[in-house]
Every structure is written in C-alpha cells, then in structure tokens.
Amino acid sequence: KEEVQEIVEFQPTVLWVSIQPLAQGIVPFLKEIADKTNCVMVLGNIGSRGLTKKDLEEIGSFVIVVEGRGESATVQLINYFQNSHSDTAVLSDIPNLKYLYKGSFITTKKEHCPSSANPIYPSLLKLEEAISRGDCINASSSYGCNGGCVFCTVKSINNGVGWNKRDYRELYYWLENIIKKGKTEGSVSMSDDDLASNLDHLREVSRIFSELNKKYNVNLTFDFSTRADHFVVKSETGEKKELRESVWRYAKESGLGSVFIG
Questions:
Q1: How far is CA 154 from CA 19, 121, 238, 261, in A?
Q2: In this structure, are residues 256 and 206 in contact, taking their beta carbons and an 8 Å threshold?
C-alpha cells in the first residue's frame, strides 16, 4: 500500500516495473496503480512473461512487456516517450516487446543482446551522485550461461541463447568513467550471469581491472557469479589444471574480491 501511495503521489508518465519470478498479486497491484494514475506501464524480468491477454485487459492501462535482454528496447522506449509519440505502430520496430493493441497481442522481433557495433552504455548522469552515496556500482562483460540448468531463468532471459561476451572496450570505457566520477576504491559488482564461463574471458576482465588500477593509481576490486565447475574441474590434470589455477590466481591479484558460486 505504501508503494502504491508513493507512486500515485508522484504521478509518473511512465512506470517501469521489474517483476520477479513467482511474484504474487502483481495484477491487482498494477490495476490499483492504473486506476489512480494515467501512466504507461513497462514491465520486465521473468515474472512479466506469464501475464496473459486477460491480465493486461484487467490492468486497464497501456502495458508494454519487455521480453529478453532489455537494453536496446529500453533505449528506444525512452526515445519513444521523450518524443511524445502517440502512434503505437512505432513500437513495432522496437525489439523484445509484447503489448495489447486494439484487442490483439503484438509481439515484436526478438533480439538476443545488443550489437557490439552499437554498444549501449549505462547513463553517466547520476553516476557521481550514486558513488558519493556509496551505492552498489555495477558493470557487465558478458551475457548468459551455457549451463542449461532446468531451474534457472538465465536462458529464458536471453531468448534461448547461451553465453556471449561483450566487447571489452565497453567494459574499459565504463570502468574508466566510474573512476573519473570518483570511485577510487571498493568493489564493482559484475552483473554477468556467468563471468568465468571462459578462462580467456576471466583473464581479460582481470587484466582490464589491473591495468586501470595501475593507470589511475586506484584500488578497485570486483566480484561476480559463476558455476562451481568453472572454479574446480575434478577431471582436469596437468597443464589444464595448472592453467585454470593460474588464471584464478591472476584474477585474485588483479582485484577479485569475492565469487558467488551457483
């Protein structure tokens, strides 16, 4: 109730909602907001995919569901709203969307992840403010996971595609801006689904942190999530085992502070 009241008092033009898997009571929650505001709702995360045509009709507001990776869709939707478009036909060119239009579900083209030719960087507008508050600062170097665990939503978010790395220049650019905006120590949380899926990738990410720490005389550390079998592979012996151990040691020396094993 407090969240609804806060939203109603703010009277947003557009409301962005991330719906976690198995979220309960989401339709009544959104319907109450729709009844008290006149905002467009943009829904993301895995929980939004289960919403049916009937659910969207019940909510009663114009609802856009973003499926899969949302970076490109988000950038284009912001542009759509900032230009005060009223023609929903324009939305058909934006990837990974599903919305109700004149009684029909419209589904746009699927896009697995942003193109390296047109990288999408996080906004720098509030970065300095976030750093001064001590907020968690994120970075990303890859998408997805090749594990295929039946209980995991990662593959669904990536529209069935496995692990893919991003252009390393994107990571370097973003970390450099984090430093220039005032973060000189502490951890950067890597939001990759499975950063250590590839040893060469882990080595390169570690090298970037090491290089920037030396270049700017700072002490950034990093943490990330990965599968247990990327950390230790029992079947490996000899050179392969030594290689894996050496890469992880290099990561630790370059600033790796903690790893979430999943």
A1: 15, 21, 33, 15
A2: yes
Extract the tokens encoding 255. Answer: 């600033």
Non-local (6+) Cβ contacts of 55 within 8 A are: 27
- CA neighbours within 13 Å on the CB side: how many for 172? 10
Q: Residue 161 — very low, low, confident or very high, per pLDDT cuts 50/70/90? A: confident
251 or 18: which leads in pLDDT = 251
Q: What is the CA radius of gyration of the chain?
A: 21
Nearest alpha carbon to residue 212 among 255, 259, 148 = 255
**Do residues 49 and 67 lie in contact, with contact meaning Cβ atoms separated by under 8 Å?**
yes
Burial of 88 (0-12, 13-18, 19+ CB in 10 A): middle
The alpha carbon of 130 is separated from its chain's Cα centroid by a whole number of angstroms, namely 18
Closest among 200, 188, 99 to 139, alpha carbons compared? 188
Residue 107 one-letter amino acid: T
For residues 114 and 118, what is the distance between their CA atoms, to the nearest angstrom? 7
pTM, to two decimals: 0.72
